[in-house]
Write a structure and sequence with these properties.
Blueprint (H helix, E strand, L loop, with lengths): L8 E5 L8 E3 L5 E4 H9 L9 E9 L13 E4 L2 E6 L7 E3 L13 E5 L13 E5 L5 E3 L1 H9 L14 E2 L12
Parallel strand pairs: 1-4, 6-9
Antiparallel strand pairs: 2-3, 3-5, 4-5, 7-8, 8-11, 9-10
């Protein structure tokens, strides 16, 4: 994906009555509300190194609600890509081809039916992309408690062992860790 360069301008699609604190995209990034950004910084969480302001130029799909009158300020963030790596022996990931690069571990992932990280590879970031797991940000237990404490909206947090991504309904890989 190409890097989203300033000035950052975009539109939101509102599916409910109010605005969320987390909006997926564009690319590997996300938009987070000002409430999210302030709380994240105040609590000293890590893994989102840069909060870039975004101008929301249009909101589509608004329902008539006083909460949906105008969006809160949003910021673009991209989680770090760090040392944490997927433990292939303890994960249930179907890949189209074997891993050829131990650093990036990028292959065409067909399905994910739970995963684990290699012991000792995670450096303690609160939000990050794991090597071998494209497109899905991973978060720490500390981040989960942060979301609960601040009642942040529009965030679905799934334990790694329960995470399923299977768009073509191929099912889990044949081997079981």
């Amino acid at each position: 994906m190409r890097t989203w360069l300033p000035p950052l301008r975009g539109e939101l699609k509102l599916n409910g009555e109010g605005f969320g604190d987390y909006v997926r995209g564009p690319g590997s990034g996300a938009l987070v509300s000002e409430q999210f950004a302030k709380a994240f910084r105040a609590e000293g969480l890590t893994g989102l190194p840069d909060f870039q302001p975004v101008e929301v130029v249009r909101v589509r799909g608004r329902r008539r609600s006083p909460l949906a009158s105008s969006p809160p300020p949003y910021f673009h963030v991209t989680p770090v890509f760090g040392g944490a790596a997927v433990d292939e022996s303890k994960s249930r990931i179907r890949r189209a081809s074997p891993i050829s690069c131990d650093w990036c571990r990028e292959t065409n992932v067909e399905t994910i039916h739970g995963f684990a990280l290699e012991e000792g590879s995670w450096r303690g970031e609160d939000v990050f992309f794991a090597r071998g797991l494209p497109g899905s940000a991973v978060v720490s237990a500390r981040f989960v408690h942060f979301v609960e404490r601040h009642a942040l909206k529009n965030m679905l947090l799934i334990p790694t062992e329960d995470y399923i991504w299977d768009p073509l309904e191929l099912g889990p890989p044949r081997h079981t860790p």
